[in-house]
Amino acid sequence: MASTTAEYALPVAAFESLILKLLNVLEMTQRPEGTSTHQAKQTLLQATNEFKESLSHAKELAHGLPGGELLIQEQDELINMLEQLKERKRCAAFICATCST
């Protein structure tokens, strides 16, 4: 059975929220009052934990994609191989088209 693109759809919102959550943590650490109060420390801890959980979830999603477990070099090699295969198919299609005319 052929795989569909929807089967491997990546929830972009899970990744977009990472930047906002990281910015939230950074803003909390840069406030003039810093983390001097117990409440500020608790708020920072909660924001940091939310970021860590979201990051962990995003990693799981990425590893769940076909090829997500590959190293960057392996991904580059796979992309190059697929580009070569695509070029060969184009050449074959061109040759077939010119031979039939």
Automatic annotation (TrEMBL):
The record's annotation in Pfam families points to:
Med9 (PF07544)
List GO molecular-function terms, semicolon-separated: transcription coregulator activity
**Localization in the cell:** Nucleus
Its GO CC terms?
A: mediator complex
Alphabetized UniProt keyword annotations: Activator, Nucleus, Transcription, Transcription regulation
**What's any GO biological process attached to this entry?**
regulation of transcription by RNA polymerase II
Recorded superkingdom = Eukaryota
Ubl conjugation: is it a keyword of this entry?
no
Q: How does it assemble?
A: Component of the Mediator complex.
- Role noted for this protein: Component of the Mediator complex, a coactivator involved in the regulated transcription of nearly all RNA polymerase II-dependent genes. Mediator functions as a bridge to convey information from gene-specific regulatory proteins to the basal RNA polymerase II transcription machinery. Mediator is recruited to promoters by direct interactions with regulatory proteins and serves as a scaffold for the assembly of a functional preinitiation complex with RNA polymerase II and the general transcription factors.
| Stated family | Belongs to the Mediator complex subunit 9 family.
User: What is the recorded name of this protein?
Assistant: Mediator of RNA polymerase II transcription subunit 9
